[in-house]
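Attaching the record inline, Q. Sequence:
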Amino acid sequence: QVQLVESGGGLVQPGGPLRLSCAASGILSRLYAMGWYRQNLGKQRELVANMTSGGITNYGESVKGRFTISRDNVKNPVYLQMNNLKPEDTADYYCDAQGPNDYWGQGTQVTVSS
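Structure, as predicted:
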């Protein structure tokens, strides 16, 4: 089993930065990717960014060049650095870990508004 806890969400002005963290615990050795998704009410959950255990990253088209996913090693949190935030980035952000099963955190809310 894997447990994921997100932190770092909040209210930020357009153009500002925010960093999300996802701390993972449990049996981490069997995970092959971790990442972030986001969802707004009535919409499908969409990929923001993910990173494989080999360090390969993948980003959603709308965040490329603005967001960066990073992780030092399997024991450290996964970070999502979000820069130049836009109102359309407002959503609930979820940490995801992929292994023998797909694991999700509870989510953290990001609101971009002046």
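The mean pLDDT is 93. DSSP finds no helices and eleven strands in the chain.

More tomorrow.
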